[in-house]
Give the backbone structure.
Amino acid sequence: MALSADLSNSANWELVFNQFFQPIPTSGANPNTIYPIYEFPISPILFENPLVAIYAKSPSAPPHWQFAGRLIQRVAVGLVVGGLNEAIQETETVRLNSIQVFNLPQYTSTYQLNFRVARWLRDIELSVWRYIGSQSDSTENMIQGLKQDLSRIEFKIDNLPH
């Protein structure tokens, strides 16, 4: 299966999330202690399209740092364990200062995205776009072509002299 989409057209992308995060230290905390930024959901919306783009930057990170964190795809399942009915379907590595496009697996019609920040980052700004343009799947195109070929063969068989 190969997905074909016009990724270079900016009109095909919709910004759905852009937020800056810093950890919230407890009162009286040591200023030299690095507190984690906890995993957070990306947007209150459910995603329907497998294509998303992510950009992460950390103003306090040295230029040679590359790892921003993990993109986590969660799907609702019919199992309830510990009060939750969702499962992690996919995790992807997100790099700092680089736009990345992900084609996430889609076993359900909708899914939620969360982000887990690298524990050593003191801050992060995360931008997420969803693809809203048209796309085609080469497998679906091949199936449609085979259906047309089959119809043509059936027509020819039906019109053979008896």
About this structure: The domain at 11-134 is CATH 2.60.120.1300 (Jelly Rolls). The helical segments are 138-158. The CA atoms of residues 47 and 111 lie 5 Å apart. Strands lie at 3-5, 13-21, 40-41, 51-57, 67-81, 84-95, 100-103, 112-117, 124-131, 135-137.
